[in-house]
Amino acid sequence: MALAMALAKPLAMLLPCPCVLCGQHGREALCAPCRAQFFSQAESRCPVCADPLPPGCTVLMCGACVTRRPSYDATVAATAYALPWDRLVLELKFGGQLAHARLFAQLLAEAVRALPAFTVPALLCPVPLGPGRLAGRGFNQALEIARPLGRMLGIAVAPRLAERVQETSAQSKLHGGRRRANVAHVFAVPDRALVEGRHIGIVDDVMSSGQTLGELAAVFKRHGAARVTNMVFARTPPRHS
């Protein structure tokens, strides 16, 4: 068994796999041409909420974050929630394509490493699902991303650092104040000692309005977290938030 496990990784590297976007066989889940065409770190984003900033903008953060600072301190997003990435997110979340989670983690890790003087969190906490939704889906996509991301960045993953204490409607179906009300008081931290004085990284697949991440960050802050950073694969454009 040990020998089989030792040989599995080198063998997997030799076998061709189809690119998740174009289907071209190669050694990576995302081929070089698709990476060059669809994945770029050039877009300037607000360091707090990760909303895009205008080209050439030199401000430290967007106007919305200056006016009303969120509960979280920073957000890292690998890409925008747009074609073709939105399709892959849906395939992971609703199609059970768990292999996409490792690719998302890889691209997110690259985005983190590209940031100058990034402060690495002490722990990664995937946004928890409620028991009903977890049972229906069979997995938590945020946890599936957090596990390989933690290995790539050398950060411990704490899946039970927070828990969702009540079921909620899907945020994607709500807008404005209804989103805020939907996630109010839904998270709890079972062990304050694990949070107090530490930098917590919250991992999720998509950040839309930021209400869910903001509520979870607020709970961590109330339990003594020194800093909270969102680490998300995709950020929706502002018009979809």
From TrEMBL:
CDD domains: PRTases_typeI (cd06223)
Family: Belongs to the ComF/GntX family.
One Pfam family from the record: DZR_2
Protein name: ComF family protein
Residue span(s) of domain Double zinc ribbon: 11-66
Domain Phosphoribosyltransferase: 156-235
